[in-house]
Amino acid sequence: MRGTTRRRSIPTRYVAAAVGAVLVLGNALLVLGPVLGLVGTAAGVGPVLQLPYGAIAVAIVVGFLVAVGCVLLAAISRRPRLCWILVVAAWIASLIGSTWPIVATAGAAVDRVGDVIPFIAELIGMVV
């Protein structure tokens, strides 16, 4: 007679939480790292480009806190579909938190360009 031992499978919630944690960590390393490098380079121009450092920091912290919260909720949820929805929400929240600094930097650069064009027009007017 064969043994009737059942293999225990890993609960879906733990698999989903592990996948979510890897995705959030991947966003932190592979997206946020280079973005902060670009923002740091832009900040290196000093007073020429005014960056919203506070808004950037708040966006990163809030985005990753929401992502970690969603991963934790996925780990304690008993419904498989909800687990995966929370994992996707965590990934999107960390992606938004990771890409917001470059959006804020681009906005500051566009504002600065708006100030440069009248200055160039004034220089041309002085020369002509």
TrEMBL record:
Which domain of life, per UniProt?
Bacteria
**Where are the bilayer-spanning segments?**
12-33, 53-75, 82-103
From the Swiss-Prot or TrEMBL record, give the protein name: Uncharacterized protein
**Key words, A-Z:** Membrane, Transmembrane, Transmembrane helix
- What is the scientific name of the source organism? Agrococcus jejuensis
Q: What is the lineage of its organism?
A: Bacteria, Bacillati, Actinomycetota, Actinomycetes, Micrococcales
